[in-house]
Amino acid sequence: MVASLAEWVSMGEHGVYVWSAWGITALFMLGLTLHARLERRQLLKHLKRVARRQASPPQQRGHDDDPKA
Amino acid sequence: MTPKRKRKLYVIVTLVSLAAVAVGLTLYALRANINLFFSPVQIAQGEAPVSRSIRAGGMVKVGSVSRDADSLNVEFTVTDYVGDLHVDYQGILPDLFREGQGVVVVGELQEDGRFRADDVLARHDENYMPPEVAQALEEAGYSPADFQARAAEVRQPREDDT
Amino acid sequence: MWGLIHKLGSPKWFYYRSAALQPWCWGVAAALLLVGSVWGLVFAPADYQQGNSFRIIYVHVPAAFLAQSVFVAMAVSGLVFMVWKIKIADMAATAMAPLGAAMTFVALFSGAVWGVPTWGTWWIWDARLTSMLILLFLYIGVIALRGAFSRRDSGARAASVLAMVGVINIPIIKYSVDWWYTLHQPASFTLTSRPAMPVEMWLPLLMMVVGFYGFFIALTLTRTRSEILRREANTRWVRALLEEVN
């Protein structure tokens, strides 16, 4: 257990090492989580747009919306 | 060049360079039979080259460390419990450098069989414990260093087959 | 048996089945990671030799486990995809590759940062560190290969082959510390032997490891579901689903 907040943050001279290692880990895990959410939201939006366009008269259907992109 | 071919070319170039990097790194690490260091017994048997930069590793023998009072000169013995290697070093030792603790020294083996180290790296073992436990062990008659050395001895079947 | 495989291989079946599972995985992972982090950073004791830098173990070891497990999962998926032509295996492999690369980087980075106060160096070309760096290159290779082909099927096959070949590196990583002299110490945390640390240090580590695996499952589920929608966009069930969501 730790005595004070400042002491805890400094990690007994090892603060830089501990916090940078944990920080990078947290950054990557949060980044991956947010990316997965954003990816899903944008994909749904995109697919709906394509579906709407295909439902309307097919006069000028572009190929720009390749779902792989 | 069509975009398709261009892309293929990029793929091939990327793959080849990746493979080259991977193989290169492997070979780099393979230099000394993939082992990072020579053990004292290997050096005693004359397996290590003299006057070339090599690494040696083992345990710091308990009671062998002697520091020069006026300079940063340090002398200690690295042991694998079979052979001993005498090491001279000048500089600051890492925090975890302790008697009974694993160590890797980088430097040159001298003609007289002593090792002149340019660099000392602490080699940690896989055991962790809180300070109180270490203290309790000490009070019970083991020094933590003994405990670590014993653990290392028990866990070192590979010493036998080399 | 064949019925089950076919069901599992059906993107539609998988998509609907995983919908209920997914929030649970995220919840369990988040809870474990939160509790494990607080425990590891605040309540777990410091090491008698390393002091507080020991706390890096709580991210280093789980990240290194995941880095290797994800690659094995990718190789197995590649095999399933190549032999049985089950497309969902390839979708899962696509979904998990960036996580594996990220975890490999995290393991390397946290290890380097940990090496400075413990070993006295942030990098050394020993067998463990080098084989782990090669794993990072393998991940980058798999991801790049998949994106490099204009036909998705070719990219998928090439990525599968590289994953299957590259999996050779995994046992090398795992046993490097036993086979050769390395600066890196042998494993502290294994499922087969007594842990090399007392319970109050080991339990938070166990929570973090399980939490990381939970995160892996949750993220892979979510991303595989996105991948299913992307690739099955022109099927009737996805269109019906899109209208439902509206």
From TrEMBL, chain B:
Parts of the chain that traverse the membrane: 9-30
Taxon lineage: Bacteria, Pseudomonadati, Pseudomonadota, Gammaproteobacteria, Oceanospirillales
Entry keyword Zinc: no
Function in brief: Heme chaperone required for the biogenesis of c-type cytochromes. Transiently binds heme delivered by CcmC and transfers the heme to apo-cytochromes in a process facilitated by CcmF and CcmH.
Main location: membrane
Gene3D superfamilies in UniProt: Nucleic acid-binding proteins
Gene it is expressed from: ccmE
Record's protein name: Cytochrome c-type biogenesis protein CcmE
InterPro entries: CcmE (IPR004329), CcmE-like_sf (IPR036127), NA-bd_OB-fold (IPR012340)
Keywords: Cell membrane, Cytochrome c-type biogenesis, Heme, Iron, Membrane, Metal-binding, Signal-anchor, Transmembrane, Transmembrane helix
Similarity annotation: Belongs to the CcmE/CycJ family.
